[in-house]
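Q: Structure tokens for this one, please.
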Amino acid sequence: MNSEITKANTGTDWAIHTQQDKELVKELGLTSATMQVMGSMIGSGIFIVSAEIARETDSPALLIGAWLVTGFMTIVGALCYGELAAMMPRAGGQYVYLREALGPLWGFLYGWTLFLVIQTGTIAAVGVAFGKFLGVFFPAVSSANWIVHLGKIPSLKLGPMVLGNMDVGLSTQNLAAVLLVIALSVINIFGVKTGALIQNIFTAAKVTALLGLVLLGVFLGRNSQALLANFHGNFWHNAALSAQHAVQVGVGGPEVSVGTLTILAVAQVGSLFSADAWNNVTFTAGEVKNPSRNLPLSLALGTGVVIALYIGCNIIYLMALPLGGDPQGATVLDRGIKYATEDRVATAVLTQMFGRMGGYMMAVAIMLSGFGCVNGLILAGARVYYAMAKDGLFFRAVAKLHPTHKTPAVSLMVQMVWTCMLCISGSYGQLLDYIIFAVLVFYILTIVGLFVLRYTRPEAERPYRAIGYPVLPAVYIVMALFVDVVLLRYKPQFTWPGLIIVLLGIPVYFAWSRRSGATNMGSSA
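A: Here is the predicted structure, written as tokens:
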């Protein structure tokens, strides 16, 4: 009897949410959806994080291995989300999947963390990176050129964490980020088609730039010193399963030795984040044409192309620069991948090929990449808060669409204001560090939700079924759990604050749901 009541309620809620999404205009085809996947994934990480991975692994094979593992996890995750997206093509994407599979609390916690840190913090960070590279051409755009300097928050050490230690105010670099966020937020009000057009243009440009880096590296970037150091008998250096690697526990903690699998999990932090945000296309599902076909296809195509480019770029890095080097080295070859100036590995590679002009070329590529990435994240993120507001779990005004363009205009503006505050606060970098753990937790929970929905809704229409189910989704869950457990143990400065941010959402959820009666929303209400 209870199960029959639950099914009846579920059907009613399903109809309500389906009706809500009919207010949105379906403008995104397969090309735009695929560009959304690729454009959200490609930010500045691929140009930078390989230096940190190289320092942690001290092995050419493990540098490539870290990206291969990231690629496998990303593509398997995308294949799993493809089934959920085809089954529930609703605005809000991952928020909806968690709500329907595990209950409204879990959906809210994801949306809470997304708004507070994940989406807005990433937009702010990429925006400031845009400003940093704009300063290559206009030196007045700098983090040291303050318009209004409110002060510096001193360092505060709490166990393995260091909080504070940041300048607060508006510099010309932050101003560039703020203006970029405002401009793209306003542009996205004028129809999802307008935002998608910008996304398509800039994603095509940065995919071309990455492909160009790979092709230039193959034909012009090969360096005999790098090839000798990285491939001639040294490729598998330090990569045996029995090898021991040094890792520092927390900030200022002891240095301990760990095995190869553990160091790979630690090194995943950079590569997983560089490949993250592929799920953003699911946020805009309510505006995708023929979503049952186009969402799974766009996830598979987009993640496949980007991961192939990422692995290709890292092979080029190893062909152009030695893995090891001297942090005080006078040339890019002397510093190598490990100690590339400010970790800008891709810039070092192009400088090695073309001299100073190479640095300018890479600055342009990163600015194009950042512009497109910010646009994609702004376009997608606003749809989640819109879906939450429809459920009574966010400010009611955020559920309103623009009367002419049928876009979540209020949601775009709320997201814009909070993102600009993060740009000025200087705290977004720390916040991004803190949610590495939380992001993986929500990916795990969502893929667990795939299993739950197969059991609780066997009759639901599934135009696409996850390839390799149940083996590949189970493998993903095990791998992601392993990474999270390792990070809890060896990188507590990243994990515990992220967990705290998530848990703080629980009392907020109950306060909000009591006010709106939203606990009656969702399949498990």
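A few notes: The beta strands are 146-158, 161-171, 245-248, 255-258. DSSP finds 20 helices and four strands in the chain.
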